[in-house]
Write a structure and sequence with these properties.
331 residues; Rossmann fold; 2 domains; seven-stranded parallel β-sheet; five-stranded parallel β-sheet; 37% helix
Length: 331
């Protein structure tokens, strides 16, 4: 056996569902043998996970993936949302799962502000008209724009992202109301509101909530009908929180001023969905959390957390710490 083969045999093997930031991937490769999945189909991931010690997750995992993970010792979400990982199944098999709280908060907040400005000021349309039809034709487009200052920003889900967004919105002169399961924990300056009050009074509604049984279908046709004429909706949570068909109907009927969807019922979009022909709708491919800055931070956190877990340590960002107690009892 060659020296390189001996080295690989003694190093832990790590599966990446997708590449991580190129500045951090070599750092992980120095400590581990890396396997980059050629695609993220269920059969591919289930096959590759069988002979690895660690897993870094950037794509949806199959619900039965841990049935095939005979030696897996650590799973790290390259990001925050855990709906990509069957955490309960991992816990049942004693596999620790960690995520990276706060690693992409600023990126998502800045996306939300950018979407508000895009929908309220319409600068892309002004630019396009100026280029195609000239100065005089472009100037009147500004007459229909509106400012964010003195308007109401309603935030559904006031966690790390929602709290930082509230500060940014307040800095723009907006009044901020929030819908959360724990109103007593709202940050200063955010008024608690129930669902009906928030949607009826907000000029901008931003969805930052997790997807669960309570939030699935939260924004349905009746909720959209209750919103102020000309209000805008921004979804950076998960696609199924919004009834997309009802939203498209509301936009086509002119009842809303616009919407921005970074997440969708079915991903990826293929280009023939009704949303592509919908007016005043900003579509992005689940990139609110992605900037070079956030990717660097998430990759750095994923690498350090995974290596700590493989060394047998207990990082504070493990979401199922009970697996360590079960390991202790078993030993």
């Amino acid at each position: 056996m060659s020296n390189s083969e001996t080295n690989n045999a003694t190093r832990p093997r790590v599966l990446l569902t997708n590449a991580i930031h190129p500045s951090l991937q070599p750092e992980l490769a120095r400590e581990c043998e890396l396997i980059l999945a050629p695609d993220t189909r269920a059969e591919t991931l289930n096959r590759l996970v069988a002979n690895v010690d660690g897993l870094i997750v950037r794509s949806l995992l199959p619900p039965d993936i841990f049935d095939y993970a005979t030696r897996l010792r650590a799973v790290v979400r390259h990001g925050v949302g855990l709906d990509m990982i069957p955490v309960e199944a991992a816990t049942a098999r004693g596999i620790p799962v960690a995520n990276l709280p706060g690693s992409n908060t600023t990126a998502v907040v800045e996306y939300c502000i950018a979407a508000m400005l895009h929908l309220r000021r319409g600068l892309a349309k002004v630019d396009a008209r100026l280029r195609s039809d000239g100065w005089a034709a472009a100037r009147p487009l500004a007459d229909g724009s509106s400012e964010l200052g003195a308007s109401v920003c309603g935030i559904v889900g006031v966690g790390a992202i929602g709290s930082q967004l509230a500060g940014a919105a307040a800095g723009l002169g907006m009044r901020v109301v929030g819908l959360t399961r724990r109103p007593g924990n709202l940050p200063p300056g955010v008024e608690a509101a129930d669902k009906a009050t928030l949607f009826a009074n907000a000029d901008v509604v931003v969805l930052c909530c997790p997807l669960n049984d309570q939030t699935r279908g939260l924004v349905d046709a009746a909720t959209l009908a209750s919103m102020k004429p000309g209000a805008i909706l921004i979804n950076v949570s998960r696609g199924p929180v919004v009834d997309t068909t009802a939203l498209i109907d509301a936009l086509r009927g002119g009842r809303l001023g616009g919407a921005a969807l970074d997440v969708h019922d079915k991903q990826p979009l293929v280009g023939n969905e009704p949303a592509f022909d919908c007016p005043n709708l900003l579509l992005t491919p689940h990139v609110a959390a992605i900037t070079d800055t956030s990717m660097t931070g998430m990759s750095r956190g994923a690498v350090s957390t995974l290596l700590a877990l493989l060394r047998g340590e207990r990082p504070a960002n493990v979401v199922n710490p009970e697996v360590f107690d079960s390991r202790s009892r078993a030993s």
